[in-house]
Design a protein that fits this description.
34% of the residues lie in helices and 25% in strands. By secondary structure, the protein is α+β, with helices and mostly antiparallel strands. It has a three-stranded mixed β-sheet with strand order 1-2-3, with helices on one face. The radius of gyration is 12 Å and the shape is globular. It is found in: Cytoplasm.
């Protein structure tokens, strides 16, 4: 199921950025959460976050509805 979420995030994010090769997603498993750390090129951070955080919030809304081993999902944008 982790792979499904990872593929979903990458499918959504790569068309939004100018440097799709710089996109990476790391998974960190905790007790309550599956944390997905998204990294993009420095110039693409604004494209992922969007005005007033609308784009990242829309991505999170979609991703949070995918069940992952009974844990909650967090999507974080790292710089």
């Amino acid at each position: 199921m982790q792979k499904d979420v990872k593929e979903l995030v990458m499918t959504i994010v790569k068309p939004l950025v100018t440097d799709p090769d710089a996109v990476s997603l790391e998974v960190v498993e905790g007790e309550e959460f599956m944390e997905y750390h998204l990294e993009v090129a420095e110039g693409d951070i604004g494209r992922i976050i969007g005005r007033q955080g609308r784009i990242i919030q829309a991505i999170r809304t979609v991703v949070y509805f995918v069940p992952v081993e009974g844990k909650k999902v967090r999507l974080l944008v790292d710089q």
